[in-house]
Amino acid sequence: MRRKQKNIIVVTLAVLIAVLFLLPLVWMVFTSFKTLSESMSSSAILPNVWTLQNYIDIFSPTSDAPILLWVFNTAVITIIGTVLVVAIDILAAYSLARLQVPGKKIIIGTIIIALTVPGIVTLFPAFYMFKSFNLLDTFIPLVLPYTASTMGVFLIYNFLISFPKDLEEAAYLDGASQMQILRHVIFPAIKPVAVTLGVITFMGIYNDYLWPSLVINSNEMKTMTLGIATLIQGSNFVNPAGMMAATVVATIPAIVVFLVANKYFVKSVTNSGIK
Amino acid sequence: MHKGTSTKTWAILMVSPFILCFILFWLAPMFLGVWVSLHNWNLSSGNNGFIGLQNYIDILTPGSLYNEAFMLALKNTLVFVVISVPPLVIIALGLALILDHLPAKLKPVFRTIYFVSYSISVTAVSAIFLWLFNENGGFINNLLVSMGILGKPINWLSEQPYAWVSVLIATVWWTIGFNMMLFINALDEVDPSLYEASDLDGANGFKKFIYITLPQIKHVAFFIIIMTVIASFNLYGQSRLITAGGPEQSTTTLTMSIQNAVFGMNQLGVGSSMAILMGIIMLLVTAAQYFMSYRKKEVN
After folding, report:
1. Which listed residue, A38, A164, B14, B146, has the most CB atoms within 10 A of its CB?
2. A175 at the B interface (CB within 8 A)?
């Protein structure tokens, strides 16, 4: 009986906290369906009058916010960036963990040092490099710099060195080529870590704000995340209704990926923690 | 196994895309940053000559323009570190403990709810909290005034200490799920037989927490504190977008002041020096925390 009472208290507390966590998101969704004037004066969560006008406005071709273009840009750079990072990191981690790479110790040591150096140190020089090569305002700086991240190589490398080599050795003795071993033995084994890395990378690129804000100027080249910042700092979205409609469009893909990949996201946190 | 030239060739082929990307987009900017910081380097007119450590001296000598900007931003950043790390760590532990005591069926549901806000971007978080806290037309003021709790709206975004409160609440809501997940993992790894033994001794929940849970999770807790300090040092998006660095630059952080040196004043050299100094400060703080916990371990 006492156990049951305790359960009720804990569940009640958990529900109250859940309401606090969900309230900003719920408010965001409902505010996007309010009229402009109501959104400014409203002290209720639900709209009095429901309207789709905010969505019609932001998707109209005359809008300040070319949202469809931003969604398209974001899709291009997150997909290409994630595939590139995962592919490059798997190859490098496999090579470092299993093959005889010259200078292996130096490479791994450098990777660990790079992990501890705060990102701010390379941020502005990297911007200046792209500026010097006239590559600002293109997809190139929005995609390629993420491939320098050492986190993924380190993650997969750590997984592989604690993973038994027996299968690979058997495949090697049977005359399998390096590529065949990678495809049929290594890849199935590291799939969970690779997906985890994919999810972290996707979220990282999708949600990045500071770096895109340095290398992108024109409205047409912006990502969704950068676009929202532009709307906040601009002068045409001075009401919560329009702003929240744009924010809903920006957050839905991230939340959907998060919920679908929840299992891997949870794992990614476990992997980032010290064991 | 794996002898012969063909494996070695494969090894080099497979690692080289990463090495190339790493050199181009990490090592080169790293060295360029150090190089630029030793020059009078203007963002638009380029390199105006080698000046040794002059940029660093300017930033660290009291009285100069760059010194004022850097020290103010450093102070603001440290204020945020001090006010944000305790709630981000303690509330996260509290949430993890609540989840730990929930019936197994409900755990994943609430874990997902507490963690979902971590998946959205800092710009979306800022848009939401900007309009929750806005003085005119913001939901919280509308609500508090209509309920009669406030006579007139509070200036959440451009008056202290409210500006820090707004940035802090947005940050806690956005990032606390991550720390909570780390604590959940740590709690899961505590040996259940320890609790069973203390049950036999008749220990209550609080005693169990102090004498069993806390010592068992202290390494992870320490790791979480370091990660949170680093994250709070990097405060940028929330204070740029919610409070625009104000009022009177009181929420202008280090990253913002570096950005201002580079883009506002065109001083790439000064900005690079500031970035390197900020990096050094962060490494020193991390090392100091690490050293302190190491010393404690030795004493224990």
Report:
1. B14
2. no
